[in-house]
Amino acid sequence: MFLTTAVRAQKVVWDSLNRQVLNLTLRGDFTAALPKAEEALKLAEKTYGRSHLRTGQSQNNLGFIYLNLNKIPKAETLLTHALKIFAGNPQTDRGDYVRALNSLAHIAQSESELPRAETLYMRASALSQRPPLTDSLQLAQTLNNLAGLYIQEGKLSSAESLGRHSLAIREKVLGLQSPATLQALDNLIYVCARQEKYAAAESLTRKELLLVGRFKNLYPLETANYENNLGTFCHLQGKYSQAESLFQNALALREGKLGPDDPVVAKTLDNLAEARKSQKKYGGLDSLYERIVAIMQKASGASDSTVAAKLKSIAQFYESIGQMEKSKKWTARAEKAGTKNNLH
Does residue 130 fall inside a structural domain? Predict the structure, then answer.
């Protein structure tokens, strides 16, 4: 009777520690979670032994914290032991099991053990999809992790398929405006762009812009990023007029938030210049180039090699369209900047 009561009391303490660990890790406060997770593991080992399911859960929690604190060897040891406990116990919580597999796969991937990482992610994915489906968001995260691995391996078609599946789950469960859904959209856009599927990338980016653009006053820079990306995908498809309009929108937002002399503003001006060049709208290009070069000089110094290279490329452009006077002007500036750079 006394022993049963003592064990129950220990379980109450262990449960309390675990709840605190969970709350802290969800907030991303891994430093504060660490001592509580260590205490929970010590209590579990003392009360239940090293092979008990609760000990495995504590090892999994502590291993996850070590992983996020970049203490990789400690994390791997704990997670490997937790996985053995989970694999041998039919009462294992599936969410714990999948999280341990994902964490170990992440470690393997970071250490360039890609086949091992793929095997672990595949196990996690298969386990997540066994009926009954209890946590579709965990499946979405596992699919997203595996897609990231496939991107690293250059298996872009497989990564796209997994990314679309992950996105569909997050849209259904969390809605379109969730940060996790937007992250899935970003990942999928990247994969499509890498495969030069610019129409698909454009469509997905329009979807993002529709969501974020509604809160343009709250998130001007985020909106500008989507405007700029969408402009890029339109430009790559030959939709130069649309691209120009989008780059102008992005420019106005970035100038308003960052000021007229920020290097990001210079990049947007450059994009705008390219869209106008593609439409043979040469009037006013000189003023755009003057602004771009002035920002570059202010950021890195007039003698910087990147400034000289930019001046040279402007000169070559004007030569290519037969505007020789302007070409000579920009060539002279490029040579002057190059000379200063060599003197340094």
Answer: no
Task: Please enumerate in sequence order all residues whose Cβ is within 8 A of that of 277, keeping only pairs 6 or more positions apart, or say none.
Answer: 285, 317
CA angle 297, 302, 304 (to 5 degrees): 95
Please give the Cα distance from 274 to 310 (Å, whole number). 13
Per-residue pLDDT at 17 exceeds 90: yes
Contact 213/207 with Cβ under 8 angstroms?
no
Q: How far apart are CA 5 and CA 337, in angstroms?
A: 82
174 occurs within a structural domain: no
One domain for residues 236 and 306: no
Q: Which residue has the higher pLDDT, 271 or 1?
A: 271
- Has residue 49 been placed in a domain? no
Classify 24 in phi/psi space as left (phi over 0), alpha (psi -120 to 50) or beta: alpha
C-alpha count within 13 angstroms, C-beta hemisphere, residue 231 = 26
In a domain, 231, yes or no: yes
Element (H, E) at 193: helix 179-194
Q: Which two tokens stand for residue 299?
A: 């950021």
Q: How far apart are CA 132 and CA 107, in angstroms?
A: 29
Total tally of structural domains belonging to the chain: 2
Q: What integer is the mean pLDDT of 149-160?
A: 96
What's this model's pTM, rounded to 2 decimal places? 0.83
Question: What pLDDT, on the 0 to 100 scale, is given for residue 210?
Answer: 87
- Domain of 328 in residue numbering reads as 301-344
User: 240: domain CATH number?
Assistant: 1.25.40.10
Same domain (yes/no): 251, 230: yes
Please indicate, yes or no, whether residues 292 and 307 belong to a single structural domain of this protein. Answer: no
308-317 residue pLDDT tens? 999 999 999 9
- What own/partner pairs with CB < 8 Å and gap ≥ 24 does 106-111 have? 106/67, 106/145, 107/67, 107/72, 107/75, 107/76, 107/79, 109/148, 109/149, 109/152, 110/72, 111/72
Let me know whether 272 and 326 are in one domain: no
| 289 shares a domain with 321 | no
